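pasting for ref
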Amino acid sequence: MLGVRLTGTGRAEVSPRLDNHQLSQLVDTSDEWIVTRTGIRARRLVSAEQGVTDLAVQAAQNALAAAGLTPFEVELIILATSTPDDLFGSASLVQDRLGAKRAVAFDLTAACSGFVFGVVTAAQFLKTGAYRRAVVIGADVLSRWVDWQDRRTCVLFGDGAGAVVLEASAQDRLLGFELQNDGSQNACLTLAYQGQPRPLIDDVTVTLGAYQFIAMNGQEVYKFAVKRVPEVIEKALFRAGLTSDQVDYFVLHQANQRILDAVAAKLAVPPERMLSNLDRYGNTSAASIPIVLDEAVRSGHIQAGHTLVLAGFGAGLTLGALVCRWG
C-alpha cells in the first residue's frame, strides 16, 4: 500500500460581497442579530453568469499551481458539491475545462461533509496504486437555493470553492479518519424535491416538480454538531494514534461560530488552534474546509509538518473527520 500526501491548495475568488447591513435591507434582521447568533458578518455570492463549474475550475487551477503540477498530470478529480450546474453532474465539465484529459472525474454529494468524504475517497484510489495524483474540490452555490425572505436561513449561506491536490507517496500523511451518517435526522436539513402527480396515459402517472428552498431545524443541527463532531474527531485521532493536544490546527466546516467554540471547548483546544473565516464567508457547505485550509497555508499559519484535523458535518445528516500532516 502506498501513502498519501497533500501538496497544494487553492480557492476561487468570489464576488460580490453581501454584508449583514445590506442583507437587512432584504429581510427583518440586523448585523447584531446575525453576528450574535452565528458569527457571520458577510458572505460572497456568485454573479449571475457564474456557476459551480466556474468556481471549481478556478480553485483546482490554483491548487495545481501551488503543487507545481499541470492538469495533464492529474488522474482523478472528485467534485464534492450539493449544487451542481447539471443534475447529471458537473465534474466532467470541470475535467474538460481544466484540461485534465487523462483524469476520470465524478461528483460526490455529502453536503457540508462532502470535502472530507472526497479526500478520504480519493486517498483510497491513491493508496492502492490505481492513480497517483488527484484533485478534490469542494464547491457550492447555495445562493440558488436560499429563500431570501427567510431570516433563519438566508443569513447563513454563501458561495465558494476550494481544492486540494493529493499525491501518492512512500510515506503516508493521511494518519486516520472516521466517517459517519445519521439518516434518522435527515429532516433536520434538507433541499428537497417536491413534485405533483401528472397522469400520462391510462394508469401511468409520473411526478413533475422542482427543488424547494433550503429548510433547516437550526436547534437540532446545533445539538447534533456539538455532540457528535467531538466524538468523530476523537475517533479519527484514536485511529491516528494521537491526542488533540498533538494537533497544530483544527479545520472544521464553517457553519456557526458557536459550534466551533463549543467543539473547541469539548476538546480542550485553545481558540487560536480552531481556524475560522466564518465572519467573511458564511457557510459555503463543501467549500468551507478547503477555503479555510487554503487561506491558512498561503498565510503561513499552516506549514510543512503541521498536524491537522479536518472535520465536516451537515445535511444527511453526515459527519466525518480526518487527521493528516501537511506537505
